[in-house]
Design brief:
By secondary structure, the protein is of the alpha+beta class. It has a single domain, classed as Cytochrome p450. Helices cover 45% and strands 10% of the residues. It contains 14 helices and twelve strands. It has helices at residues 26-30, 34-44, 64-72, 108-116, 122-141, 151-168, 176-186, 199-221, 229-234, 244-275, 277-285, 290-301, 332-335, 371-387; strands spanning 47-50, 58-61, 77-78, 148-150, 306-311, 315-317, 320-322, 327-331, 392-394, 399-400, 409-411, 413-416. A five-stranded mixed sheet has the order 1-2-8-5-3. The longest helix has 32 residues, at 244-275.
Amino acid sequence: MNAPFAVDALPDPYAIPLDQIDVSNPRIYHEDAHYRFFERLRQEDPVHYTADSHYGPYWSVTKYKDIIKVEVNHQVFSSSWEHGGGITLDEHPKGRERISFIRTDPPKHDEQRKVVSPAFTPANLAKLESLIRERTVAVLDALPRGEVFDWVPAVSINLTSMMLATLFDYPLNERHKLIYWSDVHTCHVDSPDAPVHSEDERYTELYKMVHELKALFDERAKLPPRPDLVSMLAHGESFRNLPDLEFMGQMALLINGGNDTTRNSMSGGVWAINRFPDQYRKVRENPALIESMVSEVVRWHTPVLHMRRTAVADFELRGRKIRAGDKVAVWYISGNRDDEVIERPNDFVVDRARPREHISFGFGIHRCLGNRLAELQLRILWQEIVCRDLRIEAVDKPVYQHSNLLHGIKSLPVRIN
């Protein structure tokens, strides 16, 4: 496999020795070429060892049921930052670990997750619904008709950033900073489209986030508890007196969690209805299908490509011996295309019998905390699109992010007819 970001053509995954397949290469996802790599791994080597990659040696778990087996066994497969990168294949520089509760194991994980979980209860989401709808209506009605524009900044980033600002009770007119910090936090610094190009640059920018959000945190700690995430953290016992690096990690996690899945699914859904227009026709004729369509968008696009775990004990999976200390990547993007579990997995099917049986939100104790909020925003978006009978035509393919972590869409030119 070529080094990441090399200009040589990617190899045909069926024309190279199996042990040379390296699905950690971000170019595979940027070029939308990953499907056949994972297809071969699922068929021939579903628990695959890559001995040499840009991120060191690692295992790839590519089948749906095997991914769940790893996800629920957090006693063996740790998410803790103390074992390196925590949830990412790349390692954080020593002394610069961005610690957050997704990068911890129980009991700390459970204690900290519990502090922010009230923001995502059904009762709280119900309070947000009218605001989300009001903003969605305003954004859609302001879009140009009959001319080409980029759906990503106009709709996906616009709506997601407004929701983030609400969750943080952050100034709406400065919400672009939240998206920027999210992108800085998750990017590969050596990728061509990264907002920063070194770890020093990354930490310079993230310390600006720390400075600004710490001021909000300290201010809200002195006030009565409020329903925004910053206030919840400020009044949570387990978040008091956090070192700057841990504060950085916790805030970045919450920003990423409210950004990546929703933003990229909003764009992925538009690409899906263009690839499968017959399915969009079904939804227009029967808007009751929007609920299942939203789950199908999240499965078909799969906004988070993988999560990394680290084995803390020897473990055998499909006859392969994973050793304590080994990196293990569970590839949601592959599990969601496993034809042993999902019928016609490569197709976008809005009326699946069990549409929620995907693993895009993860599984087990680290299942995405904001998944219901993401689904709510997507449901409202598609309800408002369908009731306006908008015909959204993609005039070119999406431009994907250089990333092996996020299935990010950077640009999607469209026209509303």
